[in-house]
Design a protein that fits this description.
Layout: E1 2-8, H1 16-31, E2 34-40, H2 46-57, H3 63-87, E3 92-95, H4 97-100, E4 102-104, E5 113-116, H5 118-125, E6 130-134, E7 137-139, E8 145-147, H6 152-164, E9 168-172, E10 193-195, H7 196-204, H8 212-221, E11 225-229, E12 237-240, E13 254-270, H9 273-285, E14 291-298, E15 301-309, H10 313-323, E16 331-344, H11 354-364, E17 372-375, E18 378-384, H12 388-398
Parallel strand pairs: 1-2, 1-9, 2-6, 3-6, 9-11, 10-12
Antiparallel strand pairs: 4-5, 7-8, 11-12, 13-15, 13-16, 14-15, 16-18, 17-18
Length: 401
């Protein structure tokens, strides 16, 4: 039995007409001899609208009840797509997270998948050609519905593919992964292949074709992901462990900008690692992503700086107060108006001089970075928001992206 997992994003199922278009695409796959497990997102901006509705009732909605509300969006999509498939003569059935037994951690609005009982899927595939599964959600150990956070449907799809040991195809309104954002830079080049490591870096840095958690799962279980558009027949991008041998490895694969960054500086911390640990433990409890960490000891004290998204400032305040409640004299400052500019490429491992070219490009753009971090395949720097696009353009030209 040939099985494939397909995921369709919110834009792909935003209207009844688009749902019918997706149904036609799925039928074509069935006609080719495949059984298809389809994971769907909520229609269009449904999730945003439901969040807005919840906040009209309560400024800080209870997280359990918010999950109950948000999960309805995917159930609508799944039912409608199943109807459309049946009208085309396809043996289809919709299933929700309870029925599929997608088990998650207890955390509401940001749960993680811990297991999937694939027996439900396998049993239903004996009688149906297509199973339409609600993405973005699962069930915790208490039997409560949970949601997986932004990009959760990608995670649902790849997790199902990993459990079933089958390929995964992810369809959206973008026809693949590009060297930079094609909506901002029309000359951006589409990548035929990209490695898991490169995709992880790009998604973590703000590229929106895939969610980073889905790539982590794909890498762990060796599941190839095909990213393409549901609106065209254009070839997409394959996310794989290694590039094909015939493909020349580029030095830099892509460049990206992450807007809305705040530089956080914490001064006069005791020179004791337990306080640094406490800070990042509290940050982790609140699921806040920090980056570009810098630690400087001076005169018996420690000065810590890092970046967060502007939206997370209030939660970070709470985290710092809790972590440093026994510490006197510490201070925190926040500087806004920054963007994070990054380049990524597995070819950087074996190509000297990449950093020099990167900073020369910034110099030509008249940009001085505030913070810099590097990894084996990435260089990131914090730049003023108003100069970010100019800096990115210079970097794109330097590396011919």
């Amino acid at each position: 039995m040939n099985v494939v997992v397909q995921k369709y994003g919110g834009s792909s199922v935003a209207t009844p007409e688009r749902i019918k278009n997706v149904a036609q695409r799925i039928k074509k796959k069935v006609d080719e001899g495949y059984k298809v497990v389809v994971v769907v997102s909520a229609m269009g901006k449904t999730t945003d609208n439901l969040i807005r509705l919840a906040k009209e009732i309560s400024p800080r909605p209870d997280s359990r009840e918010l999950d109950m509300l948000l999960a309805t969006g995917e159930q609508v999509s799944a039912a409608l797509l199943s109807m459309a498939l049946k009208d085309l003569g396809v043996k289809a059935k919709s299933l929700n997270a309870f029925q599929v037994k997608i088990k998650t951690t207890p955390h509401h609005t940001s749960a993680r998948i811990v297991d999937i009982d694939d027996s439900v899927i396998r049993e239903n595939l004996k009688d149906y050609d297509v199973l339409v599964v609600t993405g973005f959600q699962g069930v915790n150990e208490h039997g409560d519905l949970t949601t997986l956070g932004r990009g959760g449907s990608d995670t649902s799809a790849v997790a199902l593919a990993a459990k079933l040991r089958v390929p995964c195809e992810i369809y959206s309104d973008v026809d693949g992964i590009y060297t930079c954002d094609p909506r901002v830079h029309p000359r951006a080049k589409k990548l035929a292949y990209i490695t898991y490591d490169e995709a992880l870096e790009l998604t973590a840095l703000g590229a929106k074709v895939l969610h980073s958690r889905s790539v982590e799962i794909a890498k762990k279980y060796g599941i190839p992901i095909y990213c393409a558009s549901s609106f065209t027949e254009e070839e997409g991008t394959m996310v794989v462990e290694r590039l094909p041998e015939w493909l020349e490895e580029p030095v830099v694969t892509g460049a990206t900008i992450s807007h809305g960054q705040i530089k956080v500086s914490i001064s006069f911390l005791p020179k004791d690692v337990k306080y640094i640990t406490a800070i990042f433990e509290e940050v982790g409890k609140r699921a806040l992503n920090v980056d570009m960490i810098s630690l400087v000891p001076s005169n018996g004290k420690v000065f810590l700086s890092f970046t967060i998204l502007e939206d997370h400032k209030e939660d970070l305040d709470e985290a710092l107060k809790e972590a440093l409640r026994d510490v006197e004299g510490w201070k925190s400052t926040y500087e806004g108006g920054f963007a994070k500019l990054s380049i990524v490429g597995v070819g950087m491992r074996t190509s000297p001089g990449v950093a020099a070219r990167f900073f020369e490009a910034l110099e030509r753009a008249g940009v001085t970075p505030e913070l810099v971090t590097t990894s084996e395949i990435k260089i990131s720097c914090l730049v003023p928001e108003e100069k970010a696009e100019k800096a990115l353009k210079s970097v794109i030209e330097e590396f011919e992206l």
